Amino acid sequence: MAKTKCKLKTPKTQQDIISFLPEEVLTKILGNLSVKDAIHTSFLSKEWSYKWRSISDLTFDSDSFSTPNDREPSTLMILYLSKVLEFLFLHRGNIRTLQFNSI
């Protein structure tokens, strides 16, 4: 028996509730996520593409960045720092705190 795909339709007028929150609240919510998870929210919709850039409290965790485990520690540090610098280059908001974990 062949499987058929069933696509659920939602009314086009229906919007997500979280997008109606004030910008300050959204920024606070994103600030409570890991940097990696905050960046992943950019895939939710066009409106969310750049919201992660306004986070003011940044915590970078080296475990959040996927790097091969077979590399030397100095190479891993360079990869980690290059990803942090890339993030900071793309960031557009004020930075209140900057924290590094598990370096």
Task: Write up what this structure looks like.
This protein is α+β, with helices and mostly antiparallel strands and 103 residues long. The protein has one domain. It is built from three helices and two strands, in the order ααβαβ. The protein has helices at residues 23-31, 35-40, 73-90; strands at 57-61, 97-101. It has a two-stranded parallel ribbon with strand order 1-2. Helix 3 links the parallel strand 1 (57-61) and strand 2. The mean pLDDT is 78. It comes from Zostera marina (Eelgrass).
Question: What's a concise summary of this model?
Answer:
With 103 residues, the protein is of the alpha+beta class.
Short descriptors:
3 helices; single chain; flat; two-stranded parallel sheet; alpha+beta; 103 residues
Secondary-structure blueprint:
Blueprint: H1 23-31, H2 35-40, E1 57-61, H3 73-90, E2 97-101
Parallel strand pairs: 1-2
